[in-house]
Structures are given as C-alpha cells and as structure tokens.
Design brief:
By secondary structure, the protein is an alpha+beta fold. Among the domains are: 1-155 and 977-1038, Rossmann fold, CATH 3.40.50.300; 372-437 and 633-682; 456-520 and 541-604, Helix Hairpins (Orthogonal Bundle). Helices cover 69% and strands 10% of the residues. It is built from 21 helices and 17 strands. It has helices spanning 41-53, 133-144, 148-154, 164-167, 170-181, 184-216, 223-230, 236-299, 302-367, 370-436, 441-517, 546-593, 602-672, 682-751, 757-763, 767-797, 806-869, 878-901, 943-964, 984-998, 1011-1016; strands at residues 2-11, 14-21, 30-35, 78-85, 88-95, 98-101, 108-111, 114-120, 126-130, 156-157, 906-910, 925-929, 934-937, 972-976, 1003-1007, 1019-1026, 1029-1036. Strands 2-1-4-5-8-9 form a six-stranded antiparallel sheet, with helices on one face. A hairpin with a 6-residue loop joins strand 6 (98-101) and strand 7 (108-111). Helix 10 (370-436) packs antiparallel against helix 13 (602-672). The longest helix is centred in the middle third of the chain and has 77 residues, at 441-517. It is flat and about 205 Å long.
Length: 1038
C-alpha cells in the first residue's frame, strides 16, 4: 500500500481543507515530517489510519475527538486518501459521527458516520466499490489484507507503540502478538481440550455415582446384602458377589412356588367342573317351572285367535271387490271433469267470435288509407335526395367559421409578438447601461487581492517574530535559572568532596594506627610484607565510622547526578536559545526585506487586512452581478432572434389563412341557392326527415297490424270449435263406460256373499292391518309349539334327578382360589426381585465397561489439556508456544539489523527460563552484550540502545508479518518516534537501517525534531501552525 494523496478537512489542527500530494516526492522514497510540537505531525498518520480503518493511529484518539477546534461550525470533518496497491488505484472517503450546527434555529444536529470507497479505472473513471461504513470496512480488509492492529505495528508505528513490544512482559506481549498473527485459533484448541476434559471427568464422576446409587437401590431379602449396603463407603465388589448369590436363591424359591401353584390349580379345576354341573341342573329345573306357566297362559288365548282368523277371511274378500269400486269412482271423476271443460270451451268460442268482428272493422278502415301511404313514401324519397347537399353545406359553414376565427387569432398573436419584440429591445438597452457601470471592478479586485496577500504575509511574519521573541525571553529566563542552580550545586559539590576527603583520610590514619600496633620486629607486615618497620604510624585513638563515609559517598554521588542533570538542562536551553536567536534574526531580515516596519502595529495590519477583504468581497459580489447581467444579455439576444423568427412565420400564416377564407365563402354561397331556407341547417333537415320517415312507417305498420289481427282471430275461432267437438265426443264415451263398470261391481258383491254395501264397507282392512293380524296369529302358533316341545323335553330329562347343594360347592371352590392367589402374590414378588436384581447386575456391568473406556480417554485428553494450558515443566501454553515460534522468527530478522546498528555489540534473545511461582513465561526478551559476555533484561538498556533495539524489532516484525500474511503488499512505513536519544554514530546506524528499507522502493516517512536527521534526508514535509490552524508544504534540499 502506497499513499498518493491525503486530504484532511476540519481534522485535528487542520481547520480547513489540507491536501498532501505525495506525488511531489517523485522518486524520493524517504522523507522527514517536521514541525512544532502540537502542529499536527502525528495527525497526518491519524488521517491515513482513519481513512483506511476509521480509527486513529494511536490509542486514546477516536474519530469524533479528531474534529478540529479551529474549524467553522458549518464545515464537516472529512478525510480522503488516494493510494495505490498491486497496480490498482483506490480512493476512500470517511467522516466520523459529529455535531453540526443547525441551518435554521439554534442548537446542533448529529451527523452520522459515512464512508465511500472508489477504484480508478484505466479509463480515468471512478468506480464505486462500497457506499457505507460496514461495506467499506469489509472491502478494505479484503484489499489491504491487514487489520488496524497489524497496520499500526507494521506500516505505521505511532508514539508509544514503538517500544511496547520490546519491554512488555510475556502476558502483554502475548496480547500484542495475538492481534498481529491471529493465533486465537490455538487458544480455541486449548479451550476445546478443557471443555472435553471437563466433560469426560464429569461423565466419569456421574457414571461412578450412578453405579453406587444403583447398587444401593438393591431390595434383597438376605441379611448379608443388608449388612453390605449399610457399610460406608460401599464395597461394590462384595455387593456384586452377594448379588449373584441372592439371584440364585431367589430363583430356587420361585421354582418351588410354581410347583405348589400347579398342584392347587388341578384341584381348583375339579371343583369348577362340579360347580358347572350343579349350576346346569339347577337351571333346567327353574326353566321347566317357567315353561309350565307359559303353557297355561297360551291355552287361555285360543278363542281370540280363532276370531282373528275369520276377520282375515272377510278382509280378503273385501280387498278383491275394492279394486272394482276404485274403477267406478275414477270414471265418475273423469266424466265430471269433461263436462266442466265443455262449458268453458263454449264460453271461449263466443269471445273469439266477438273479437273477430272488431278486428274486421279496423282492417276496413286501414285499407281505405292507401293514397295517404303513397304520399308519405314520396315525401321521404324527396328529402333523402337532398340529404347529401344539406350535410355538405353544414360542414362547409363550420370550416368557414373556423378559418375566420383562425385568421383573427393569428393576427392577434402577431400583434402580441410585436409588443414583446419592442420590450426585449428596451431591456437590452438597460442591460448595456448596467454592464458599462461594472467594468472597473475586475481591475479593482486584482489590486486588492495582491494587497491582501502581502498583508497576510506581514501578519504571519509579525506573529512568528513575536512568538519567537516570547520564546527567547522564556529561554533566557530558564537559562539564567539553570546557571544559578549550577553554581549553587557546584558549591554543594565542593563541600561534599572536601567532607568525603577528610573522612577517608581520618579512616586511613585510624586503620594505619591499628595495623602499626600489631607490628612485631622481624615479622613480615601484612600489607607490604617487609620485616623492617622503621617508621610505624602513631596510634589514633578514634576515627570516622565506615557508615559516615558511605553516607558521604552517597551524598556526593547524588549531588554529582543532580549537577549533571542541571548542566545538561542548561546546555539544552542554551542550544535552543541560540537556535531561536538565529531563527529570529532570519525572521527580522525577512521582515526588513518585505518592507514590514517594526513600528507597524498588529492592529494597523489587521485594519488593512479587513479593508482589503471588504473591497474584495464587494468586488466579487459586483463581478457576480456582472456575470449575471452578461447571462441576461445573452438570454435577451436569443429571445429577440426567436421573436423575429416567429413574427416572420406568422405573417406567412396570416396571408395563407385569408386566402383560404375567401375560397371557402364562395363555395358556401353556391350551396345555399339549391336548398330551401327551412332545411338549410342540418339540425332542421334531420328533424323534418325523421318526421317524414316516422309518418311513413306508422301508416305501413298500422295496415300490417290490422291485417294480422283479422287473420289471427279467424284461425283462433277454427281451433276452439274443433276442440269443443272433440271434448263432447269424449264425454259420451266415458258415460257409457261408467254404466258398464257399476253393473260389474254389483255382481261381484253378490258373488262374495256380502249382504249389502254396508257389510262390505265394514269388512275392508288395510294391507298393513291384515299383515299385523296374520303376524299375531303366526306368533301365537309358534310360541305355543315351542313352549310345548321344550316343556316335554325337560320333563323327560329331569325324570329321577334331585336338586344339588350349590352353596357348599361354591364355598369349597372359593377356599381353593384364595390359596392360589396367595401363592401367586408370593411368586410375583419373588419374580420382581429377581428381575430387579438381574437388571441392577447387568447395568452395573455396563457401567464398569463404560467407566473403564471413559477413564482411558480422560487420561489422554486431560494430559493434553494440562500440556496446552501450561501445566508443564516450561509453564508454556500451546498458544504461547506458537507465538514463541513467531517471536523467534522476528528476533532472527531483527538481530540482523540490531547487530549492524550496535556494531555487533547486542543481539536479542527470548527468555526461556521458567518464571517463579505461577507466572506465565516464554515471551520476555533478553539482550546479550558482547562486551560483558552476559545476558540481561531489555529494560536495562539505555534510551538510545532501547530505541535501536525497538527499531530493529519493529522492522523485523514488519518483515515476518508480511511473510505470514501472504499477498500483503508493504510499500510504505511511517515512524513517529524520537530519534533524539541517539548519539551521532547511533543516528547514522539507524538511518542506514531505514535506508536499507527504502532502497527496495519502500516509502519511509519519519517524524523527528533531530537536525542531523533532517540534514541526512533531502525531502521534508513541513507542518506549519498558525493561530487559525495548521497547513503543510513539501520542501526539498540537495
């Protein structure tokens, strides 16, 4: 990823729209970003990071907090980054959620965060790839293939992040490397092992508990099992052995009960057979007594049954005669209906004859109107012949009127356009007057803009001079203070040295006196080894204490450290003072060269600026007005041309319309001569024509209707007369047939021995009644036969048989059944105990097999979890083991650069020793010092050494992450750290390391205040801060 252009609007210290074009670097691949503290150098990194990821480059800065306090309320905070990646050019826009002043009324409204991503095509067009924050984030991740954490650690190393990876402990370093290498997968493996191990452990515990509870649930009657179950903890092996024994005993007991039940069942079957025989005999005796009673009842109904049989005989005769009676009644009804129809037909015939007489009279009247019908037909033919001429006349008159109206309209439009044309000419004259009055404002604008540029330059220059003078005064005061502190500290240091010298001298003399007192002539001295002691020291009775000397040394070291600190601060202030004095001299020379008088106050400059701005504003407004008048002039010119064209066209149309009107008027006058005045109008003609046709049709319809009515009545009379003759013939035939059937009925009544019609009528029964009586007789005969047969059968069967003692047999059977039930209950209880014990035995064996398999799995999974969790000799988790491998790769690359930057003195190592207690280890760093040949913690490195180690580690990290993040294109690196801790040699080594990076075409940007670094790098992005915000510009040297 390589930035091409960065735009920041109302972002951080950049109040307006600031554009940084990295294309100005051309072939340069390294540049330094320079500027005052707080001017907005780091904000450039924030802008790039925010554009890509919606987050600032460092911790603690969010998108909403990056809004510029210098910006106006109506300007939105927005960032645009154009960058190239793998041959493609992308452009991304982002704006954070922010508060914007309402356009109407007071208060603010919340503007939501927005993001857009485009790609520049080969045709120079922008193609939209994503249009909201979520889609842009996903697309950026797909394109860049780095998340924000990786980007900050590899491409953009902000303040505070540079040294974090070097000195952090194992736990913090683990979090950093996790984010970079996404090793959460290995942590998930550890958690998965933990979950599975816990689950297996729980299953083993649950299975053991289930087995114990299962064995405790045994309901065995044996004393041995009861005693075993009362022991705690439970002896499960002994319980299972006793359980097998109890099952064998219960099985034997069950077999004995089954044999007893078999014997008692045979005895119960014998008594059941006796009971069945006794109940059968008792039932037969009771049945015979019941049949005797029924037989007597049936004999009492015999006479009634004989009467019902006679009633059926007479009913059958009446039924045979009834059919003939129905025939006679049907003929009588038919005869009465024909008589009524004859009378109705006679009345209808009389009405038809009267209607015919009336219709004949009407026909005679219509027949006499033949001449009138002929005249009406001729009138219609005459009018029809004139219809075409009348219709044509009406159309011609309408066209004539339309042409007259059209001619008038065209003449009116021509007059209207002429008036408009004159008005446009008047307006054009007025516009020319206005334009001539605005000609001088353009030159006025150029003059005032030049003045304003010069005044702004003077204001900025004056502000920088005043600021620099203020800084110099402050530095002079601080330098004087440090100088006084240095003098005071020098006096204290001299006194401390004098005190220490006196104490050490006193101590030495006292020790020499003690040694001299122990010298023996002829024996060797313990200090010099001489056996001669010509001038031994005199004995000193008392000397200073060793603790006093140590205190004096500590005080001297403290004062020397404070003196060095003050001296360093004084030199720093002196250097800054000299640089500031030099910069002030340059500013004053620039002010003198630009004509800025020292006595020219800021108020006067501001007044000149405001005056120029007011004139410029007025000139711009006037020139806007001039542009508007020019546009108006062009528009009026076009309107004038259009009106002239329309007037010419209308003149042609008016002449043509007048010619057509005269021609059409002559045609209409010729038609009027051939048509009567009363029907010249189409409406009048249509009305007269319709009335004539109606009259003609009415006369024809009346004649046809009269003829049709006369013919219809003639036909109707003939039809009714024929019907009357037919009905009278039918009536005579039915009358003869009725008389014949009546004679047949009387003969049959005598034949069936009916005394008279009354006896016949009383003997009639319905078919249902006859069937009911027959059924009653049949039922009686069947019941009498059945009862007689069964009664006789039982008399023969029970001859010589006595009634049995049924109650005694039942008592014997109940006793036997009760004994069987008791034995069955004993057998059921015993069988249930056997099944329960057998079930517990089988389930316990299954649990033993399951627990054995689970315990084997738990031993394996539990051991793997302990290893992955860090419960091993190295106290190293699985994830940390993987991270340690990544870290080793990083250190290998980092040491290649660190050895160069430290002239072979240092290289980094990973601490592999086990940490104390339960602390996690494996990722802390040590440094090996070739000078001492020993390892020590990286925290013991000095500021400059620590910086070089951090830089080497960061460069190594960038290279390794690029190797593991396949497809990632790293063409840029930004570094925001202080190089001020380095001496000249170290600075050269660090710059050489950065040169190695940029030599491969990688763009390197460094934020630094170090003058030597600025001199070494020819491209500089200068960030200039003012009272109204900051701005940037590229500067190139060499």
């Amino acid at each position: 990823m390589k930035p091409l252009k960065l735009m920041m609007q109302a972002f951080g210290p950049y109040a307006k729209t600031e554009v940084i074009d990295f294309g100005q670097l051309e072939n340069r691949t390294m540049f330094v970003i320079s500027g005052r503290t707080g001017s907005g150098k780091t904000t450039i990194f924030d802008g790039i990071s925010f554009a890509i990821y919606g987050r600032a480059s460092g911790e603690g800065r969010t998108g909403a907090e990056l809004r510029s306090h210098f910006a106006s309320n109506d300007m939105l905070t927005e960032v645009m980054l154009q960058f190239s990646l793998k041959g493609h050019t992308y452009e991304i826009y982002r704006s954070p959620q922010q508060e914007k002043k309402k356009e109407r009324g007071d208060g603010y409204r919340t503007v939501t965060a927005k993001a857009e991503l485009y790609e520049w095509t080969n045709d120079g067009e922008k193609k939209l790839l994503a249009a909201n924050v979520r889609d842009v984030d996903e697309k950026v991740k797909e394109i860049v293939q780095l998340d924000a954490n990786q980007f900050r650690q590899i491409l953009m190393i902000p303040q505070g992040e540079f040294r974090k990876l070097l000195v952090s402990d194992s736990k913090d370093k683990e979090q950093i490397l996790q984010r970079l290498f996404h090793t959460q997968f290995y942590k998930k493996i550890e958690e998965k092992l933990k979950t599975e191990a816990n689950a297996l452990k729980q299953k083993v515990q649950s299975g053991a508990e289930e087995r114990t509870q299962l064995l405790k649930s045994i309901q065995s009657p044996s004393e041995e099992m009861v005693q075993l179950l009362e022991v705690s903890p439970l002896n499960e092996a002994a319980v299972r052995t006793q359980l097998a024994t109890d099952i064998e005993d219960l099985t034997a007991q069950s077999q004995h009960i089954q044999q007893t039940l078999s014997n008692q069942s045979h005895l119960r079957d014998e008594w059941n057979r006796k009971l069945d025989q006794a109940e059968r005999i008792t039932s037969q005796i009771e049945k015979k007594e019941q049949l005797d009673k029924q037989f007597q009842q049936l004999q009492g109904r015999k006479e009634d049954i004989l009467n019902k049989q006679a009633e059926i005989v007479w009913a059958e005769k009446a039924t045979k005669l009834e059919q003939q009676e129905k025939e006679c009644k049907a003929l009588k009804s038919e005869l009465d209906r024909l008589h009524e129809r004859i009378e109705q037909t006679k009345k209808e015939l009389a009405l038809k004859q009267e209607a015919y007489i009336q219709a004949e009279k009407v026909w005679e009247v219509e027949k006499s109107k033949e001449d009138e019908r002929h005249q009406a037909t001729e009138e219609v033919s005459k009018l029809y012949a004139m219809k075409a001429a009348v219709y044509s006349l009406d159309d011609e008159q309408q066209q004539l009127e339309q042409r007259k109206i059209q001619t008038k309209q065209l003449e009116g439009r021509r007059l209207q356009l002429s008036d408009q044309y004159e008005e446009v000419e008047r307006q054009m004259e007025q516009v020319e007057i206005e334009l001539s009055s605005l000609d001088h404002w353009q030159s006025q604008l150029y003059q005032e803009e030049a003045k304003l540029t010069k005044v702004n330059s003077h204001i900025q220059l004056r502000h920088e001079i005043v600021t620099k003078q203020t800084d110099i005064s402050l530095l002079q005061q601080q330098h004087r203070e440090f100088k006084e502190q240095e003098k005071e500290k020098s006096d204290q240091l001299l006194h401390a040295r004098t005190t220490l010298t006196a104490l050490e001298s006193g101590w030495n003399k006292h020790q020499a006196g003690i040694l001299a007192a122990t010298l023996i002539p002829g024996e060797a001295c313990s200090v010099c080894g001489s056996t001669h002691h010509p001038h031994p020291a005199s004995e000193v009775l008392a000397g200073p204490a060793k603790e006093d000397i140590q205190l004096a040394k500590a005080e001297l070291e403290r004062l020397e450290q404070e003196h060095r600190t003050i001296e360093k601060s004084k030199l720093e202030k002196q250097t800054r003072l000299e640089l500031s004095m030099e910069a002030l001299g340059k500013l004053e020379q620039e002010a003198q060269a630009s004509g800025l008088d020292n006595d020219f106050s800021a108020q006067e400059l501001l007044k000149k600026k405001q005056a120029s701005e007011a004139i410029i504003q007025e000139a711009k407004e006037r020139l806007k007005l001039k542009t508007k008048w020019m546009e108006t002039k062009e528009e009026l010119k076009r309107s004038k041309q259009k009106l002239q064209q329309e007037i010419n066209e209308l003149n042609t149309k008016v002449n043509h319309a007048q010619e057509r009107f005269v021609t059409k008027r002559a045609e209409v006058e010729q038609l009027l001569k051939n048509i009567p005045v009363a029907i010249q109008q189409k409406t009048a003609f249509d009305q007269v024509f319709q009335q004539a046709e109606k009259r003609k049709q009415q006369l024809l319809d009346q004649f046809d209707q009269a003829l049709k009515q006369k013919q219809l009545h003639e036909k109707s009379i003939a039809t009714v007369a024929a019907t009357l003759q037919e009905v009278e013939y039918m009536y005579k035939g039915k009358q003869e047939q009725l008389e014949k059937e009546r004679n047949v009925f009387l003969e049959l009544m005598n034949q069936y021995q009916f005394k008279d019609y009354k006896q016949y009528e009383s003997s009639k029964r319905s078919e249902v009644a006859v069937k009911q009586i027959q059924q009653e007789i049949m039922t009686y005969n069947e019941e009498l036969r059945s009862v007689s047969d069964r009664r006789q059968e039982l008399i023969q069967l029970l001859e010589g048989v006595e009634k049995p003692d049924l109650e005694r047999i039942k008592e014997e059977l109940a006793s036997i059944t009760e004994q069987i039930t008791a034995e069955q209950e004993r057998w059921a209880v015993t069988s249930a105990l056997i099944r329960d014990c057998q079930r517990i035995k089988e389930r316990a064996e299954e649990l033993n097999e399951d627990l054995k398999e689970l315990e084997e799995k738990y031993q394996l999974i539990g051991h793997l979890y302990d290893m992955a969790h860090g419960n091993n000799v190295h106290k190293l988790t699985f994830e940390r083991y993987v991270l340690a491998s990544f870290l080793d790769d990083i250190l290998k690359v980092a040491n290649e650069r660190l050895v160069k930057m430290t002239a072979g003195r240092y290289y980094l190592l990973r601490k592999t020793d086990r940490a104390k207690g339960n602390a996690q280890s494996g990722l802390e760093l040590l440094v090996f010092d070739q000078y001492t040949g020993q390892e020590r913690h990286v925290k013991t490195l000095s500021g400059g050494e620590s910086f070089k180690a951090s830089l080497a580690l960061a460069l190594g990290l960038a290279e390794v992450v690029q190797q593991y993040a396949g497809g990632v294109s790293l063409e840029t690196m930004f570094i925001d750290e202080g190089f001020g801790t380095l001496d000249q040699e170290s600075l050269d080594q660090a710059v050489e390391a950065l040169m190695d990076i940029q030599s491969s075409g990688r763009l390197v940007g460094v934020i630094s205040h170090v003058p030597e670094l600025k001199e070494r790098i020819e491209a500089r992005l200068e960030v200039i801060s003012t009272q109204s915000g900051s701005y940037t510009e590229f500067q190139f040297f060499g």
